[in-house]
Amino acid sequence: MSKKEPVILSEKDKKNRKNSLIGAAFLMATSAVGPGFLTQTAVFTETLLASFGFVILASIFLDIGAQLNVWRIIAVSRMRGQEIANAVLPGLGFVVAIFIVIGGLAFNIGNIGGAGLGTNALLGFDPRVGAVITAVIAIFIFLSKEAGAAMDQIVKWLGGLLIILIAYVMFVSQPPVGEAIYRSVVPLELDFYAIITIVGGTVGGYITFSGGHRLLDAGISGKESIPEVTRTSVMGILVASFIRIMLFLAVLGVVSAGVNLDPNNPAATVFQHAAGEIGYRMFGLVLWVAGITSVIGAAYTSVSFLRSFHKKIEEYYRYWIIGFIIFSTGVFVFIGEAVTLLILAGAVNGLILPLTLGSILLAAHNKKIIGDYKHPVWLTVFGAIVVLLTTYLGVRTLIQTLPQLF
């Protein structure tokens, strides 16, 4: 039996493939770096000071463990997350999809709101006007016939802009870098809750599937693509973590100078103290970029969890994404942040990662799903640890949330 001839790609195909790989990494990273990411990092840094570096370092390893499992199995099986879950246990994929869509919808309201507040800080617009402008830009991207390629480019360039802006504030805030490095290895205090919260915020809910599903749509799948998928998945985590590290150092520089962060807008305090009025405008731009990229990621990934359930959704998926964005924007403009929905989604979101990653780990050793691919044992162990930790966090969050709802 003759060996299969290797596929020779043209220079154009190679360039498109490279753009898709980089785009997938940045889609995942910028989906994680939303308005909540900025606030979360600022609050934990003010609480733990330099020891928050250890939390970030520990979370990076756990994030990589979770993401490598998810992206590899999506690539090898050539199936989306909900299809893998259904193959593991019939009906589980529908449960996962419902959780993902509810969580994605609720957080998208927050992302739209964050983008609106960003335009308010940057240009003085009413947040609702800024939210509508943001939604129109996002919709325009998905109206393009080459929506996937357009999305790859947008998240890549906006992600780069985000890095530049935060890097500037980090440098002018003059953080105690030596202390941060030392405490990243020898922390004064160990906050277990902070570690699993950061893990959930980076790879929880729909986020870890965003890049994996993007690669699938770009035709990058199969066992032969594992090296590329592995590098890209790690790149996504490292980009998100790099942004968090720079923001951590920026906040640390400000709080080390004795500044108390405004509890209503802690990240804004950092930018304003470090760079004055220009810094506050920069914060508005950072918040807007974080908001719109998360809107794109949340809408794209949430709808991708529905595409396999009906041919009409698959056929018109771009319009479903647009509808998702319009609905999220409408809720923010006419109702507000929908606090109860956001609180409930936060609790549900904590249960999504153990559910989805758990099904991925079961699929990783099911020959009917992955064929002759051999999944590394160390990755399975890594994934199992993340499942246990996030299950604990999810249950704890749900217990704390229920009294707020009733």
From TrEMBL:
UniProt keyword terms in alphabetical order: Membrane, Transmembrane, Transmembrane helix
TM region positions: 21-42, 48-66, 87-109, 121-142, 154-172, 192-212, 233-258, 278-305, 317-335, 341-364, 376-395
InterPro entries given in the database record: NRAMP_fam
Pfam families with a match to the protein in the record: Nramp
The protein, known as: NRAMP family divalent metal transporter
Residue ranges that the Swiss-Prot or TrEMBL entry lists as coiled coil: none
Localization per Swiss-Prot or TrEMBL: Membrane
Membrane topology: Multi-pass membrane protein
